[in-house]
Amino acid sequence: MFGYVVINKPEIKFKDFDLYRSYYCGLCRDLKESFGVKGQLTLNYDLTFLAILLDGLYEDNTVESECRCIVHPFSKHKTLRNEYTLYASDMNVLLTYYQCIDDWEDEKSRKKRRFAKSLKSRAEKVMKKYPEKAKNIELELKILAECEKNHEENIDLTSGCFGRIMAELFLFKKDEWKEYLEKMGFYLGKFIYILDAYCDYEEDIQKNRFNALKGIGNDEKTIREMLTLVMSECTKNYEMLPIVENNDILQNILYSGVWTGFDLKSAPKRDREQV
């Protein structure tokens, strides 16, 4: 379900793309140092966005360094790391572990079961570090799993579960920005859940799997309107945050990048309809 909160590369400045990549690489390094190679395999763009958002809001002391890696073995590249990339690395591992467990229970994916087992001790380390957060996320995942098991067709209920999971992630600390961060995460989570259901709709129906859109269908116009309403609430709360640093990157993602998955899915459908 992750991987939709990405940049729109053609629309971003070179310097901002390089900065974005430095955060991404910094998150990767934190994953490796905290959880090893297995941890690096959980790396995703969604939590990179969260790290950039929190750093833009709180402006922590960020450590800049250079390193080589498997992806870039011959030349050093810049990494940016701080307490927010470290926090994002913890959440990366925790969410991936829960997602693998869910995939095993829903689809009996042995691959995901093996990966979950390999992450278990690492995820437990995060649970001990953030017990309340882990408890809340696990509870919402159980509610979501029950909704899906019962073939709940009210997508406001199912997407709301994932929205509350993202709200929990966005709540880094309880301060004056708590309300806006929680609401921003909530609506972004709903957006991700609905978009994921839209992208998986045809395959889910073909394989007789649950899809939250089954009750209303996957009409492009209807889904776009639904997603637009949800994302407008997300961006409204984002605009309430006093973010100057990283603002161009964050706006690129929120106003353009998050729609990449929708556009990629919709384009082939429109092409088929025109034939």
What is the secondary structure topology, with strand pairs?
Layout: H1 14-40, H2 45-58, E1 63-67, E2 77-81, H3 83-107, H4 110-129, H5 131-149, H6 155-170, H7 178-206, H8 220-238, H9 247-255, H10 260-274
Antiparallel strand pairs: 1-2
Query: How is the biggest beta sheet arranged?
Result: 2 strands, antiparallel
Helix coverage percent = over 70%
Number of helices: 10
The top level CATH class name: Mainly Alpha
How does CATH name the architecture? Orthogonal Bundle
The proportion of strand residues reads: under 5%
**And the CATH topology?**
Farnesyl Diphosphate Synthase
Order of helices and strands: HHEEHHHHHHHH
Instruction: Give the quaternary arrangement of the chains.
Output: single chain
The CATH superfamily bears the name: Farnesyl Diphosphate Synthase
- Summed over residues and divided by their number, the pLDDT gives a mean of 90
Q: What does the model show?
A:
- There is one protein chain.
- The chain is mainly alpha-helical.
- It has one domain: Farnesyl Diphosphate Synthase, CATH 1.10.600.10.
- A two-stranded antiparallel sheet has the order 1-2.
- The longest helix is centred in the C-terminal third of the chain and has 29 residues.
- The chain is globular.
- The chain starts with 13 loop residues before the first helix and ends with a helix.
